[in-house]
# Entry
Amino acid sequence: MPHVERGMVVGLFGGSFNPPHQGHVLVAEIALRRLGLDQLWWMVTPGNPLKDRNALAPLAERLAACERLAVDPRIKVTAFEQTLGTSYTALTLDHIRVRKPGVHFIWVMGADNLKNFHRWQQWQKIATTFPIAVIDRPGSTLSYLSSKMARTFDYARIDEEDAGVLWQKKAPVWTFIHGPRSTLSSTALRAAADR
# Structure
């Protein structure tokens, strides 16, 4: 895991990054600015249980591509989940919580993941481990109203104007942050590369 100090506010942005693109950078920039983060960890997962493992580029390639894109020194590219031997977010967050007490973590995700968040293993545990910031993505703006996660934790949603103090709140708590959106997606980039 990247080095952190007690009292820091750190965003956790996990994903396959297969491949990483400027849409990921835009989410990172919005999260850094609106959440007041000291760091944002791009947690490049070795595998995603909800996606085709055969479609994943090798981890080393994805890490190198992320390093080239993530030029802001506050963005820390890491693949420590491979060392943990898990690709389940709930287990990863448990590990982080135990290993890094005194650090204020926020789970950061694109709104495109909100629609299927209830399919993640122990998704309700994830929502009660750290505050969550959902960053708007094209075609996903309404998912924060209709997703199972949004409906289940509707009582825990705070206004995006309070995003800067999200780290001070006890989970479950989440916010939906609107802002500039990129139409880029890893799926579309892979499809274009296959043509």
Notes: The CA atoms of residues 107 and 132 lie 5 Å apart.
